[in-house]
Amino acid sequence: DAMVIQNPRYQVTQFGKPVTLSCSQTLNHNVMYWYQQKSSQAPKLLFHYYDKDFNNEADTPDNFQSRRPNTSFCFLDIRSPGLGDAAMYLCATSRGMGEWNEQFFGPGTRLTVL
Amino acid sequence: GQQVMQIPQYQHVQEGEDFTTYCNSSTTLSNIQWYKQRPGGHPVFLIQLVKSGEVKKQKRLTFQFGEAKKNSSLHITATQTTDVGTYFCAGSGGGTSYGKLTFGQGTILTVHP
Fold it and tell me: Which of B99, B102, B103 sits opposite A98 (nearest CB)?
């Protein structure tokens, strides 16, 4: 089945220790998104890629970076995680934007920062 | 920037009762989507509304998009325990936010058997 896969599902890191979360998709969608979701809150968009074009949200901290080496994979790098970065990180994809932006979410990676 | 407000934040109902959640945008939307997130799960797409005044139904769920394309609602008739979860509206606007979704805060639905 076509899907969005995130690895790992749970990640524990230490304060200040870089961490990379990964996302892959078999849907062949053009757009990939990274969201941060904290407990009982809405998903907050960090950035997205339309093909190779990177789009950063204005309020996304510089501590967060992303890479999309090919259509299928997208990575979220947190260079120096702080305690406030503990959250669920959701990857999502969509075929396009505009009216064709139904988003398909992966299961998420729950990040713990010690 | 675009803001999407959703109320109520919490709703507790007895099984069989109806449930409604409301969504309001600060700007006119090109479309609005609804997602459901089960406890411990990830958001799952339910539906997209595009046209002014549009009404769509999925079994016991009724979705409406306002005439001005700034508000929307989700109504569940005769709730069941399987309806438990958080319901998010997510609006897509124009300009610099074109194609990106702004999520409402969500309504957490609890259904008591």
Answer: B99
pLDDT in tens, A39-54: 989 999 999 999 999 9
Q: Cα(B98)–Cα(A97) distance, rounded to whole angstroms?
A: 8
Structure tokens at A36: 């941060």
**Cβ atoms within 10 A of the Cβ of A98, count?**
12
Distance between CA atoms of A7 and A45, rounded to whole angstroms? Answer: 19
Q: What share of chain B is helix, strand, coil (3-state, %, to 5)?
A: 5, 55, 40
Matching residue, tokens 């998420």: A108
Mean pLDDT for B6-22 is 97
Report yes or no: B95 at the A interface, CB cutoff 8 Å. Answer: no
The label of the residue with tokens 């990379």 reads A20
Nearest by CB to B43, from A45, A98, A105: name it. A105
